[in-house]
């Protein structure tokens, strides 16, 4: 194409049509050029995507389970320890055996303590005899004083000897009581109905005071302790003070270590007094009946609570994306223009996020978020709530 000399062309035109006409012609030419450019720019900015699946959000009341790792303990758990030194003469029960309250478990050697009891009995008899002799002597001296044969001071001395002899009886009785108590410690009995644990000391072993002989547990009922965060604790306590039930179902479910749900439900009873320094958590206690004694002391499991949230929205996870720990969705305005919207999930619920902060009727891009971006326009293909949730419900 040949180039055109604009100065030459304008000069020719000015000679033929005049300067005024040329100015008017250039004005229309410039206006036409800018109009074309403006139209092309608008055509480039407006992008309409067809048949983009869109879901309209509606508020819901959600009841969902939340699980916590728990530690299980027997309602009663006692360490059976020797109170005196001696040899294990006999073991009357076997490991893992159920025993009744007062049943004999162990017998320690008792010869030494039997001799101590016999010695204490002898001293008690001696003290009683001395007291009786002192009493007779005092009565004899009383008669002599009454007849003015001896002075009253002699009678007073006899009374003092009698009191000393009587105090000797009290001392001998205390010694006998201690000896009998020591002897009773050689026979070790069950403090309550329960199951005995392993025996670290076998028959014939020497034990000293404080040595562990076994444990005994009552597991007709068990406690399950689970820890919650400080925020969860505050939420629970505020709801309780306002007379609300944060937990919709007062019966608590226990999931055993094999994944099976325990047959019996428990009751939330109480909580610890202080927060744990290292984790900032606090433990709640749940009591479970255990009539079949399936659960043992020290077992593990998970506590499952049914929590209820009102006026929340279910946002499919596939409709969201994350950037630097923030969650986003694409939301449509009234003109069907896409806007990016951030939100903070309250809880995962299967393949959904439970979210707050949306309004009823808000529309989000349900599928194809990779095709859209902030500012584009779409032609929505509305997806019914039932269709969307039924499609995803199999993943719950």
UniProtKB/TrEMBL annotation:
The keyword Coiled coil applies. Residues 311-370 form the Multidrug resistance protein MdtA-like C-terminal permuted SH3 domain. InterPro entries: MdtA-like_b-barrel (IPR058626), MdtA-like_BSH (IPR058625), MdtA-like_C (IPR058627), MdtA-like_HH (IPR058624), RND_pump_MFP (IPR006143). Residues 78-217 form the Multidrug resistance protein MdtA-like barrel-sandwich hybrid domain. Residues 117-144 form a coiled coil. Residues 226-296 form the Multidrug resistance protein MdtA-like beta-barrel domain. Residues 118-186 form the Multidrug resistance protein MdtA-like alpha-helical hairpin domain. It is found in: Cell envelope. Keywords: Coiled coil. Belongs to the membrane fusion protein (MFP) (TC 8.A.1) family. This is Efflux RND transporter periplasmic adaptor subunit. It comes from Shivajiella indica.
